[in-house]
Amino acid sequence: MLQLALFIASVAWVFSSQALAERAGNGIAVRFDFVSFQFLLAALFFIFLLWLGFSILQAISFGRKSSRDVLGLPNRPTVQREWTVGVAVGWGMVVAAVSPMALAGTLHIQWWTAPRAFWLAVINLLTIGGATLAEEIAFRGYPFRRLIEAIGPVGATVVMSILFGLIHAFNPAATWSSVFMTMLAGVLLCVAWLRTHGLWIGWGLHFGWNASTGVLFGLPVSGFLRFSSVVQTRAIGRIWLTGGDYGPEAALFTALVLLVGIGVLIRVTRDYAWHYTYEPIIAGGYPMHAPPPAEHTAMEQQAKLAPLIQILPATPQSGSVEDEPKV
Questions:
Q1: Is the pLDDT of residue 324 over 70?
Q2: What's the rounded Cα separation, in Å, for the pair 75 and 68?
Q3: Residue 129 lies in a domain
Q4: In this model, does residue 327 exceed pLDDT 80?
């Protein structure tokens, strides 16, 4: 019951923090004329508020832990490699999702090569990095771990994936297929946590997907077009292939990409699963060094060593070889 109560409290804090962060980011951007940094500021405020609330819940329930542990970002030697692997998997999945659109001739691309476009591309990458980290902490960080303790990993994955999809139902141009695809993406990201017990590879995957979709290919990211700068693309064609104005995440073809992505993710995280998730093997069975029976010990104590017998040679040692035997 405690774990379930902590999950509910953490989810409530997530929604409250997101609303506060959006207002703070918008207010500072307008006050100081940092409009280009509005969403980046909101993401940073969101991360700070998540850390604050989750740290308080952790301290009240189980005692204090490091900030990394509370957020689900453990410090370990493979951090950079995990994040890079996640980015590579996310990029590869977007390429697989967009390639059929290109082959079908549905992509109409425009280029904006002004200096400001490249500056906005850098800001957009930073914003995507902050926003995806905030989402991973909010959905697969502290709340997900509390739910795992309450109902197990399978139930927690189902609940968090459904919640992840339903929240994205309020995005612009959302459809029933986009909600389903987002739920499936939630399963993928939950698997990333379960395989590594850390958010590094899931954050990298999330960043790789969003950055490749919005900045590299110039397509909508979950219904938002604000990440397109140098490359601006419109996908005109069948919704099941292009996803329409919502982006590739609403295309039914993406379901196949996500399912294959889950298999690829499981394969590339074999070493991490072995090092970070498996419980150490504890030897079991009967002890191999059992003491001998009492009767056997008593018999050994009663037994006496037999006297040593010296065997002398048959030929006298004082005789000579030349002496003839006497008859």
A1: no
A2: 7
A3: yes
A4: no
Domain enclosing residue 140, as ranges: 78-275
pLDDT in tens, 141-188: 999 999 999 999 999 999 999 999 999 999 999 999 999 999 999 999
pLDDT of residue 63: 74
Residue 121 lies in a domain: yes
pTM reported for the whole predicted model: 0.83
Question: In this structure, is residue 23 part of a structural domain?
Answer: no
* Number of domains present in the structure of the chain: 1
Helix or strand (DSSP H, E) at 146: helix 142-151
pLDDT at 246 over 90: yes
Does some domain include residue 36? no
Residues of the chain with pLDDT > 70, as a percent, come to 86
Mean pLDDT of the residues in the chain: 88
**Contact call for residues 258 and 186 (beta carbons, < 8 A):** no
Q: Which residues contact 62 (CB under 8 A, 6 or more apart)?
A: none
Mention every residue, 6+ apart, whose C-beta is less than 8 A from residue 146: 3, 4, 6, 7, 10
List Cα–Cα distances, 280 to 69, 75, 107, 277, 283, in angstroms.
21, 20, 51, 9, 10
Rounded Cα distance between 89 and 205, Å, is 6
Locate 303 and state its tokens.
Answer: 């037994």
Helix (H, G, I), strand (E, B) or coil at 94: helix
3-state secondary structure 186-249: HHHHHHHHHHHCCCHHHHHHHHHHHHHHHHHCCCCECCECCCCCCEEEEECCCHHHHCHHHCHH
